[in-house]
Amino acid sequence: MGAALVGWFEKNKRTMAWRDDPSPYHVWVSEIMLQQTRVETVHSYYARFMKAFPTLQSLADAGEEVLLKQWEGLGYYSRARNLQKAAKTVVSEYGGVVPDSFEKLVKLPGIGSYTAGAILSIAFHKPFPVADGNVLRVLSRVLGRTDDVRDEKTKERFEKELKAYLDRVALDPGEFNQGLMELGALVCIPNGRPKCTECPWNALCEAKRRGLEEALPVISPKAEKKVEEKTVLLLYEGEKLLVEKRSGRDVLNGLYGFPSAEGELSQNRLSEAVSGGTVKKLPDQRHVFTHKVWNMHCYEVKVENFGAVSGRVFGLLYGTEGTPASYRLVGKKELEEEIALPAAFRKWPLFGSET
Ligand code: SF4
């Protein structure tokens, strides 16, 4: 069964830069990028990231803002921060060599059983499973299982079974794991009918035999996302735009963004706060995070001297919390080259352009 899958994988695998040289560092970075992000998107980010940080040591040594700039647009910035924290630990505790032990890997920030399994099986050829969404779907169908794949216990059970299987078969665990994931991505697909006629497991698939290909896997509905209303300011002083480092307020803590307040502020209140400045309403925008949605009401504000109105503006936005941790007035070039601006804040044209 495993040999048929590996044979299929050899013939059908897609070209991916990290597959050319699957070193522990390459597999690690690619797997972290692939979490919550499509393969097509990861290609260009991976190439850019490896150019900037070709070695684990260079990643460990990088400044935080340089690192976040390389990650800009990929989202879930804690992934980048954890990657660097873990790289620093590998340098300080393991002499810069990625450990080949499951117990050591899962102690590193940002590495769970899935990433540890990918590094161990693909880079070190050790018999450890990977159980991502693709794998859980394929296995549920092949084995005809009706357990809820959103339940952590289902994942643990599959991991245990896969581990026992990999321990006993004479297959390259990395090839088998990648084959499973690739089969889920290309053939045993999540939306629409799986392409069973192209599947190497066609003859032994339980879901196919029982006509349950589209009924499996069983997935319990996701909890509804909480919707939050925000007011966002694109505040210009001449040719400079105000960006602030967000602190302790939300999912984008520690990243740069535009000044923003909870709820929807009226144009009148803003006009009072920036007395003499202009306030223009821009189109509302929406940003979807993993667990919440921001409905953003945006104003373009132009002032001559931000220092003269900053107290009133920040008071209006943040109340007693006062000013943000830090803020900067930046030009277009500075924003493009130095500031990692999360996707939630890249919804409006800036500096009067469409870019
Ligand atoms: S036969 Fe069809 S349902 Fe079964 S594993 Fe293959 S693609 Fe998926």
Task: Please explain how this structure is put together.
This protein is an alpha+beta fold and 355 residues long. The protein has 2 domains: 2-209, Endonuclease III, domain 1, CATH 1.10.340; 226-345, Nucleoside Triphosphate Pyrophosphohydrolase (Alpha-Beta Complex). It contains 16 helices and 7 strands. Strands 1, 2, 3, 4, 5, 6 and 7 form a 7-stranded mixed β-sheet that branches. Helix 1 packs across helix 12 (173-186), helix 3 (24-34) packs across helix 4 and helix 10 (133-143) packs across helix 12. The chain is elongated, with a radius of gyration of 24 Å. Bound molecules: iron/sulfur cluster (SF4).
If you compute it from the alpha carbons, what radius of gyration comes out, rounded to the nearest whole angstrom?
Answer: 24 Å
Described by strand count, sense and barrel closure, the largest sheet is: 7 strands, mixed
CATH architecture of the largest domain: Orthogonal Bundle
- Ligand species: iron/sulfur cluster
Beta-strand share of residues: 5-15%
Tally of contiguous helical segments: 16
How would the global form be characterised? elongated
Query: What pattern of helices and strands is seen along the backbone?
Result: HHHHHHHHHHHHHEEEEHEEHEH
- What value does the average pLDDT take? 93
Question: For the record, what is the CATH homologous superfamily label of the largest domain?
Answer: Hypothetical protein, domain 2
Determine the CATH topology of the largest domain. Endonuclease III, domain 1
User: Got a strand count?
Assistant: 7
Low-pLDDT stretches = none
How far apart the termini lie comes to 51 Å
The level 1 CATH classification of the largest domain is Mainly Alpha
**Class based on secondary structure composition and strand pairing:** alpha+beta
- The figure for the number of domains is 2
Kindly state the percentage of residues in helix: 40-55%
